[in-house]
Every structure is written in structure tokens, then in C-alpha cells.
Amino acid sequence: MDIEVDHYAVLNLPSGEEGAKLSENGISKAYRKKALELHPDKRPHDPNDHSNFQKLTTSYEILKDEKDRKLFDELLHVKREKIQRQSQQDSKRRKMMSDLDARERAAASREEEEERIPRKLKEEIARIRAKKQTRANEILSSVDKQKVLKVSWKKKMGEDYTSQRLRELFSKFGEVEHVIKSSKNRSALVVMSSKVDADKVYCGDLSDILLVVPLQPFQPPMPPSPYFKPDQGKFENSVLEKMRKAAQRKMLSTLIR
């Protein structure tokens, strides 16, 4: 028995469950009709006429025999189940591949997003810093450097001075025009309204609280004096520096309280 041939189809009959219900009379009727069509006398120019007619006769003999037909129906049933299982497996395989592909795309998208967000954040920070630096340069280029003070503080104090906090502190000495706070370290530039107001802020290290120095210290030239002694100048400068630091510590400590 040729297991690759659907003998029902050869006779132009339905196979499967519908074919299994056909009567012997129905099968014979279908054979006679098909035989008239494929008989060699009807197809003199067909080189495959004998072969085709022989296949038709073989299929008919299998289907008209009860045992052969039952065996063939069982064979068809097994083949249908196999095709169905393969179809289900192919469907599951396609779904697995589709799910895997979807997960890979989602993972790639997440990875791309995880890389994009820090990159965009870094770019935004750089843009803001550049904008602030440009603004700071514009301010410094338009003001008298003599009224600009450099301010810095240490981390151990536990306080990160904001622009508003610095403005409040230095407003005690006079009007504050600008506060330019650095985004990289604990420092800032404070622009007072005049050099007089800037001079009111004593310069030096204020008991590890705030270090305030002029951006461009004013040092008028001193004429040489025949009575000036180098050692005497060093001593006087040391005493003046200590006095200035003491006064500054006292004043700014009072403001911060």
C-alpha cells in the first residue's frame, strides 16, 4: 500500500471522517465515473494514460476491500494527527520565537534608554554649566573687579551655602548686585554694588567658616621711605593681618548665628 497516496482523492472523493462514511456503492460509482475519464481509449495522446489508469484501479481495489480500507482510514487518521501535532509545535515554536524576539527588542530598548538618559542628563548639565559660565563672564566683563569678592567654604562645616544664603550674609555689608555660585566646588563670586561695600568685608580665613578674598586686590604703590626697615614691615604686617582676621571672625560669626 502506497502510504503517500490519498486513495479517496484519486477517485475525487472526500477523505478523512467524511470518506470513512462512504458506502461501497458510492465508491464504485465514483470509480466508474473516473475510469471513463482516464481510460486509455479516451486519452490516446496521453503518454501516462496507462499509469494513471493503473493508479485509479489500485485505489479502487483498496477502498472496496473492507480490511484494506479500514487500514487505510487508520493510516489517514495517524497522518492527520501527526500534521496537527506538527502544526501545534510550529505554532508554539513561532510564538516562542516571537516572544523571545519581543523580549530581546524590549531589553535592547531598555538598554538604549538606560544609556540615553544619563547621556542626556550629562549634556543638560554641561549646557546649564556653560550657560551659567557665559552669564558669569558677561557679568564680570561689565563690572569693576574691585567690587568682586571670591568666597569659598569647606565641606566639614556641614553647610552648602546657597546663592540666597550668601546674598543674605553679604547684604549686611552693603548692597549685593550678583551672586555667582560655582557648580563644581564650594565657592562663589559675590559682586557688591561698590568697592566701598566690598572693602567693608574683611579678607581672610574666618575661623574655617568662609574664606573671602578680593577677586582683584587693590594694592596702591607705596613710596620708598628712608625710615622703613624690612624687618619692621614684616612685623607690622603680621600684627595687622592678625587684627583683620580677628575682626572678620567676630563680624561674620555674628552674622551666621
List the helices and strands and how they pair.
Layout: H1 7-10, H2 16-20, H3 24-38, H4 49-64, H5 66-142, E1 148-152, H6 163-170, E2 176-181, E3 187-192, H7 195-200, E4 204-206, E5 210-214, H8 230-256
Antiparallel strand pairs: 1-3, 1-5, 2-3, 4-5
Helix pairs in contact: 3-4
Total DSSP helices: 8
Determine the N-to-C terminus distance. Answer: 108 Å
Helix fraction bin? 55-70%
Q: What Rg, in angstroms, do the CA atoms define? A: 51 Å
Chain-averaged pLDDT: 79
Estimate the strand proportion: 5-15%
Question: Helix/strand-derived class?
Answer: alpha+beta
Instruction: Write the H/E string, N to C.
Output: HHHHHEHEEHEEH
Strand order of the largest sheet: 2-3-1-5-4
Biggest sheet character: 5 strands, antiparallel
Please mark out the parts with pLDDT under 50 across 5 or more consecutive residues, or reply none. Answer: none
Shape: rod-shaped
Number of strands: 5
In short:
The protein is of the alpha+beta class and 257 residues long. It has helices at residues 7-10, 16-20, 24-38, 49-64, 66-142, 163-170, 195-200, 230-256, and strands at residues 148-152, 176-181, 187-192, 204-206, 210-214.
Question: What does this protein structure show overall?
Answer:
The protein has 257 residues and is of the alpha+beta class. It has helices at residues 7-10, 16-20, 24-38, 49-64, 66-142, 163-170, 195-200, 230-256, and strands at 148-152, 176-181, 187-192, 204-206, 210-214. A hairpin with a 5-residue loop joins strand 2 (176-181) and strand 3. Helix 3 (24-38) runs antiparallel to helix 4 (49-64). The longest helix is centred in the middle third of the chain and has 77 residues, at 66-142. It is rod-shaped, with a radius of gyration of 51 Å. The chain starts with 6 loop residues before the first helix and ends with a helix. The model has no long low-confidence stretch (mean pLDDT 79).
